[in-house]
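pinned: reference chain
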Amino acid sequence: MSLIELKNVSYSYNDSTKAVDDVSFSVRKGDYVTIIGHNGSGKSTLAKLIAGLLPVKEGSITVDSLEVNEENIPQIRKRLGIVFQNPDNQFIGSTVRDDIAFGLENKQVPSDEMEAIVEEYAKKVGLTEYLNYEPQNLSGGQKQRVAIAGILAMSPDIIIFDEATSMLDPKGKKEIKQLMYDLAGGDDITIISITHDIEEVLQSDDCVVLSKGKLFMHDVPEKVFANAEKLRQIDLDVPFIENVRETFGKYKIKLKANDLKGMVEELCRSGSKR
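pinned: its structure tokens
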């Protein structure tokens, strides 16, 4: 069942070259979808269009059959949250507790219920002991977890991560990616991740590839990366595992496994038959 539908969506800034050009695809409920492409390919513009942060000028976007337009935006935003590159731009409260509670206050959730919800999602993202800290004094990964907790507290159906790990150090990236994988483990939340991290793409259910604002490819990650030469033509890399597969393919050795351990076992088996 499609939760999000894009049909012939185009968008340009100041009537210049189209940042998004006639893009159509759908996102199924509960899926973890990654969107990749070189810089300037339209990834972040597309995320903002889906979230209603930019007006849809051409084509249409629907979220659970609601068209993304001025009239429906309030309803859609109750169901959708977005995590940006820089978490500092999302902080409202003076403490972690206040920041997680901000959206709940706007919904006029009773204070006793609010406290329980804040505690629940602070625990979910591993920040219980930091509730009384100022967000600005936390590490990059911790700040991003505060932003995610604030969104989760609003019980969204959809979360968009707009290059949410790009400004983090390796430890912070690992923490946030693991949290994203954990969230994607159930059917309750649909995740759209704008990313440059090819290894993250391998963990997703579906992959959308953009090039110069156009839809270049849309398929499961295994089939996307099977087109390694096409991806390189638009300045995208492929996972290490696909480079290994491609290298052995040049010697007429076809490896089917999707991890290095499996490939080694395949090579051992083929060697024992000779």
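why pinned: Residues 239-274 form one domain. The chain has a mean pLDDT of 89.
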